């Protein structure tokens, strides 16, 4: 009896131990497979001859290697990144609930293409610059190298299709591993459709941009750099920055915002420019402030020189396809040399709010086309009260549930401006409503804008109407001659 009890206990113990072993094997199954894979990979490397291709972050001239960025996006998208020993986790750009995996340094990520096995290693060179190492068997190189790289470009293009980026230049003394440009998602909601400006003028701007995009061969035929420079000028709050965002969204171009205060010297500015992708929007805001500072004794011996800035505007260091946009509050005191034809192709004036612009704002923000208070607003504006569209839009947003209250707040602001001596003198050219005309000049190689209204017609327009310019009056920046 005791013997049988002992046997039963022994069987029970063996069963428990067996179950425990099975569970442990199941738990460690993934680890065992992982170890076996590493052994097979080690044996494979010893048996076959391999070739390694390096993809550096920058080339020998210090220019950014655009293939590096594409490889980085592709490798981080591979499912095998999860199997690496060390992986960084980041929140997604589109949603805080998305988790993005990013490969850490010296980690191996395997991949397969057309039946061949390849691997990527994220490393650093001796100078601290990042690089990717692509490893494949020599016998597979001729068969898969070019198709594999083309496959990477196709996949990344589909992934980027297309989220716009805003790039801001870092300080020169920043960590060299960060790079000179730092990118952020560009999600500004402004579009050409939401801009408050004359419809005909808006269409002319869109046509000018579309014509530029299609004119690469025409520029090269003329021996010119394929670029287009815009100057947006006018008081603060008149929509210049929103217009830049609308241009970027219309073109589907990334935006590179150059902060000249973060640029060490002319050579540093050149280095920044060669790292900008083609078909990008390059923006320098408040150019008049920078030029005024360079004219003073305090700033004349430091930073970017005026000649370096002019070379930058001329596109001496630019690749093809870039559109450069400069903003100013006032261009009257700027040396004409800075704004000469060929250096600035299109001038667009953004005035303070006139009555027509006010009505457009009221329709957009309050949903009304007419109101009993409109005549009062028109009377005050024609009396000389001038405030920016941004001020009016903020008042309308704050009182959007009550159009009457919103209009009364606008009237109060206009009266304060008028009574407080805030009237701004208007130039003759800014007080005449005229229709811009397209001109194609030998200087620019592509149409610039010109006001083609004779002087008598301007005078008649002034007597007939006291309305000011719509947003976006184009100055003649191309040539004093117009082909007809």
TrEMBL record:
The catalysed reaction is: ATP + H2O = ADP + phosphate + H(+)
Task: Enumerate the transmembrane spans.
Answer: 6-27
Please tell me whether the keyword Transmembrane helix is annotated for this protein: yes
Query: What are the protein's GO molecular function terms?
Result: ATP binding; ATP hydrolysis activity
Keywords on this record? Hydrolase, Magnesium, Membrane, Transmembrane, Transmembrane helix
Family membership: Belongs to the AAA ATPase family. BCS1 subfamily.
Q: What is this protein called?
A: AAA+ ATPase domain-containing protein
């Amino acid at each position: 009896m005791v013997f049988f009890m002992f046997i039963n206990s022994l069987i029970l113990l063996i069963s428990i131990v067996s179950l425990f072993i099975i569970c442990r094997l199941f738990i460690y199954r993934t680890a065992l497979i992982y170890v076996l894979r590493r052994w097979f990979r080690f044996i494979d490397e010893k048996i076959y001859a391999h070739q390694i291709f390096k993809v550096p972050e920058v080339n020998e001239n210090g220019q950014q290697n655009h293939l590096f960025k594409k490889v980085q996006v592709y490798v981080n998208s591979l499912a095998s990144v999860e199997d690496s020993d060390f992986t960084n986790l980041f929140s997604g750009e589109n949603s805080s609930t998305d988790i993005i995996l990013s490969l850490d340094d010296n980690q191996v990520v395997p991949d397969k293409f057309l039946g061949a096995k390849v691997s990527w290693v994220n490393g650093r060179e001796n100078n601290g610059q990042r690089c990717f190492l692509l490893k494949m068997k020599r016998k597979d190189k001729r068969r898969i190298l070019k198709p594999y790289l083309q496959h990477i470009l196709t996949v990344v293009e589909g992934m980027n299709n297309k989220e716009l980026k805003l790039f801001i230049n870092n300080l020169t003394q920043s960590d060299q591993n960060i790079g000179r440009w730092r990118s952020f998602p560009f999600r500004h909601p402004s579009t050409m459709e939401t801009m408050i400006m004359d419809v005909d003028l808006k269409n002319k701007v869109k046509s000018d941009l579309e014509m530029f995009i299609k004119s690469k061969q025409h520029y090269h035929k003329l021996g010119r750099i394929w670029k287009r420079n815009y100057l947006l000028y006018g008081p603060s709050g008149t929509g210049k920055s929103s217009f830049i965002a609308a241009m970027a969204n219309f073109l589907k171009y990334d935006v590179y915002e150059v902060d000249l205060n973060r640029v060490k010297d002319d050579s540093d500015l050149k280095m920044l420019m060669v790292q900008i992708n083609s078909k990008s929007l390059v923006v320098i805001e408040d150019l008049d402030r920078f030029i005024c500072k360079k004219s003073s004794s305090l700033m004349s011996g430091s930073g970017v020189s005026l000649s370096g800035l002019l070379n930058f505007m001329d596109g001496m260091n630019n690749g093809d396809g870039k559109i450069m946009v400069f903003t100013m509050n006032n261009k009257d005191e700027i040396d004409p040399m800075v704004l000469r034809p060929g250096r600035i192709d299109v001038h667009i004036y953004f005035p303070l709010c006139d009555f027509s612009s006010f009505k457009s704002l009221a329709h957009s923000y309050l949903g009304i086309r007419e109101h009993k208070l409109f005549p009062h607003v028109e009377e005050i504006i024609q009396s000389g009260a001038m405030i920016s569209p941004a001020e009016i839009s903020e008042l309308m947003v704050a009182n959007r549930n009550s159009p009457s209250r919103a209009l009364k707040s606008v009237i109060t602001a206009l009266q304060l401006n008028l009574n407080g001596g805030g009237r701004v003198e208007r130039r003759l050219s800014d007080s005449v409503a005229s229709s811009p005309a397209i001109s194609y000049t030998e200087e620019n190689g592509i149409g610039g804008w010109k006001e083609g209204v004779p002087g008598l017609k301007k005078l008649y327009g002034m007597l007939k109407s006291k309305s000011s310019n719509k947003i976006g009056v184009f100055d003649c920046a191309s040539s004093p001659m117009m082909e007809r």
